[in-house]
Amino acid sequence: MSGRMRRLVVVARLGISVLAACALISCDSLSLDVGSGALDGTIPGTVKVSDLPPEARATLDLIESGGPFPFRKDGDVFHNYEGLLPAQRDGYYREYTVVTPGSPDRGARRIVTGRDGERYYTDDHYDSFRLVVE
Fold it and tell me: Count of domains in the chain?
């Protein structure tokens, strides 16, 4: 094997090693994020309906009955700009306010629903989501 060919083999092996190391590091960091909602659109952690605050349960009841909703923006499209929910076409998700006692505005809590019936809860204004389960 010529000197040039040996150098190419060494560089190729080095490149493969670097890629493998990067993949391991990326996989480790993703597995840490899944519980709070990963940036790759994986399913976030879960919360039982019974463990939600009473205001969130009331919002779920309003959603189920079709309203009326207390805030003008309730039912608007949630665009998932943060990328924390599973990737879907724009218009798939809708957002609803969860009343926050003592807040002078809509507060940080929301229920986001998907067209297929899934429901997500955030109490930190879209910084994280949990899938609502029965």
Answer: 2
Query: 26-55: per-residue pLDDT in tens?
Result: 433 333 333 344 444 555 699 999 999 999
Same domain, 8 and 52: no
Task: Using alpha carbons, list the distances in angstroms from residue 58 to 13, 37, 51, 68, 70.
Answer: 59, 24, 13, 12, 11
The CATH number of residue 102's host domain is 3.10.450.30
Q: Is 118 a catalytic residue?
A: no
95 is catalytic: yes
Residue spans of the chain under pLDDT 50:
8-12, 14-15, 17-40
From the list 79, 95, 118, 134, the catalytic residue is: 95
**Contact 60/111 with Cβ under 8 angstroms?**
yes
Q: Give the β-pairing of 45-48 and 76-78.
A: unpaired
CB atoms within 10 A of CB 78: 22
